[in-house]
Amino acid sequence: MTTSSRFAVSLHILTLLVSQDGQPVTSEFIAASANTNPGVVRRLLSMLHRSGLVMSQLGAGGGALLAKPAAQIRLIDVYRAVEPGCLFAMHRSPPNPNCPVGAHIQAALKPAMGRAEAAFEAKLAETRLSEIARSVAARGRPRARAG
Amino acid sequence: MTTSSRFAVSLHILTLLVSQDGQPVTSEFIAASANTNPGVVRRLLSMLHRSGLVMSQLGAGGGALLAKPAAQIRLIDVYRAVEPGCLFAMHRSPPNPNCPVGAHIQAALKPAMGRAEAAFEAKLAETRLSEIARSVAARGRPRARAG
DNA sequence: ATAATGTGTAACTACGTTAGTTACACTAGC
DNA sequence: GCTAGTGTAACTAACGTAGTTACACATTAT
């Protein structure tokens, strides 16, 4: 289980940037939408900036902006930007090397874990921020579907 | 990132049970191999028991046993037994419903997250405990490969 | 019967990670 | 220069995990 909400909140932030197309968005505005704190938002923006997903305009009237088109941002890019670790954790303390099982269990587990993680990341690479933004917009005007 | 080593240690335990085929294995013996504490091992065995993967023989000479053949235990069964949560966490506090993005972001994220999680679980369903045990055994006698 | 061995479970502790919070130096526009 | 913002660091509170201990209970062996 993932104990972090950074991925969900980061996608929230990015979707908000898409919806305010081109206008710099303040961390306070974002925080009000995500129901959190401007400090938390700025911390996430900082991580997203390091991965080249957002940029920011300093000074009065400033705020956050997308650094590239939403269609070029894959969910896996966002995930990697804010979830540094990997999906599986090995033993906290290394197993007993004098036991036949302990000596080789980790090496034996790695391939299967790697395959699962690769499948996970591949799926996250199939969806782009633009699709999320479109989905959110569509839900905002439900009658557009019926009529 | 997963902060828990339960999945890896559980597979260690189960592989050890395979390697001691049929003989009850004590939590103390397992703990010595996994380099942890008998209490931790028993806690994991308890979770594995709830999912029907292991059983235990009480009393002197007792210990843990596989509850079904290793070829019938998929890694996803083990994962589900000891990692109750899901891969993605949503916002800690619900987003602002008065914001167009806040009102719909979670619903918009769910499908993509669900697809990634499904792909992950499907991959974990492809590998079985018997394969892990075989891989460990093979690494224990490396010359068997060359000769 | 009784002692010895081992499970099952609960309680508590130590530790790490996360999010919330505050503070402050710094930057850009008015 | 004043105002509105960012970027970053520090601290706190809450939570989950693993380590640890303890003890009631079950089974086997003597």
Short description:
The structure is a homodimer of 147-residue chains. With 147 residues, chain A is mostly helical. Helices cover 57% and strands 5% of the residues of chain A.
In sequence order, what are the helices and strands of chain A, one letter per element? Answer: HHHEEHHHH
Report the radius of gyration of chain A as a whole number of Å. 20 Å
- What would the average pLDDT of chain A be, to the nearest integer? 95
The number of E-state strands of chain A comes to 2
Indicate the percent of residues in helices of chain A: 55-70%
Q: How are strands sequenced across the largest beta sheet of chain A?
A: 1-2
- Quaternary assembly: homodimer
Q: How many DSSP H or I helices of chain A?
A: 7
Identify the biggest protein-protein contact and residues per side.
A-B, 64 and 64 residues
How large a portion of the residues of chain A is in β-strands, by DSSP E?
5-15%
Content-based structural category of chain A: mainly alpha
Kindly, what is the distance between the CA atoms of the first and last residues of chain A, rounded to a whole number of angstroms?
A: 41 Å
Question: Which runs of chain A of at least 5 residues are low in confidence (pLDDT < 50)?
Answer: none
Q: What about the largest sheet of chain A?
A: 2 strands, antiparallel
